[in-house]
Amino acid sequence: MKNGEEDGFGESFLVKPGKNFRLDDIDPSSRHGPYDKDSAEEALAQYCERLKALQYLLYAEGKRGLLICLQALDAGGKDGTIRHVFGVLNPQGCRVQSFKAPTPDESAHDFLWRIHRVTPARGEIVVFNRSHYEDVLVARVHGLAPESAWKSRYEAINDFEHHLGESGIQVLKFFLHISKEEQLQRFRKRIEDPGRHWKISEADYAEREYWGAYQEAYEDVLNRCSRPEAPWYVIPADHKWYRNIVVCRIVVDYLESLGMKTPEARVDIEALKRKYHIQADEKEK
């Protein structure tokens, strides 16, 4: 799947800990790597096949799990990424979890309570469509929590993700970075397509007034919470086809790095074959 020139592909999108990362330094329409639209679609099909094989190994080993967090502004492509990248996986070992406004029961607990309950088991891949980061994004931008509350949550999140890593659950986080102009184009397409009217609301347009505040909030998230055990990747997402291949490659490269192998048999295979081949022959007679 890779050649020497392409090693470290994901490094181009990684938010490195300790750096002063700024979203303005990333062009949402930029493209890094050897892809145009046609070659990316062909490569995506190949990487998705490899992703399926790696999921099988992850499930068979049962030693580690993988949590993938997708964050984006409205129309940023979370659903599309899930459909085109993770839609190929076996649902027996993969599930998608979305998060809306907390229920009264969830609000009565700490903000990570509802998150921890749905993290992956070992052998499982879970994709978060939005995540625990909403509590330092929406809560901050709209004043749903006092500053003293949401500021303390960065450390709580880092501790939570570190604990997951210590328990064998790796966390990969993707911010799907679109431009304000591209978001508006996607809103217009939803209005023009009757089949997608249900996806648009007046609130989507109203949220655009907070664009700058969200950019600042995301920059704080990326700078404070990208760590070796739970890295953040910023994916230029104006081109949907490019977004898909980049996310898929990063996930595949990570799973490849685990060096997973099919577990050893738990029974004597040769003895089993001898025993049941004989019985099968006798039934045929």
Description:
- The chain is of the alpha/beta class and 285 residues long.
- It has one domain (4-284): P-loop containing nucleotide triphosphate hydrolases (Rossmann fold, 3-Layer(aba) Sandwich), CATH 3.40.50.
- It is 46% helix and 11% strand.
- The chain is built from 11 helices and 5 strands; from the N terminus they run αβαβααβααβαααβαα.
- Strands 2-3-1-4-5 form a 5-stranded parallel sheet, with helices on both faces.
- Helix 1 (37-61) runs parallel beside helix 10.
- It is globular and about 70 Å long.
- Mean pLDDT is 92; it is low at 1-6.
Total DSSP E strands? 5
The CATH superfamily is identified as P-loop containing nucleotide triphosphate hydrolases
CATH class label: Alpha Beta
Q: Measured on Cα atoms, how large is the radius of gyration?
A: 22 Å
How many strands, what sense, and barrel or not for the largest sheet? 5 strands, parallel
Kindly estimate the percentage of residues that lie in beta strands according to DSSP.
Answer: 5-15%
Number of domains: 1
Low-confidence stretches: 1-6
The dominant shape is: globular
Distance from first to last alpha carbon: 49 Å
Order of helices and strands: HEHEHHEHHEHHHEHH
CATH fold category name:
Rossmann fold
Largest sheet, order of strands side by side?
A: 2-3-1-4-5
- Would you tell me the overall average pLDDT? 92
- Name the CATH architecture: 3-Layer(aba) Sandwich
Structural class: alpha/beta
- Can you count the helices? 11
Which oligomeric form is depicted? single chain
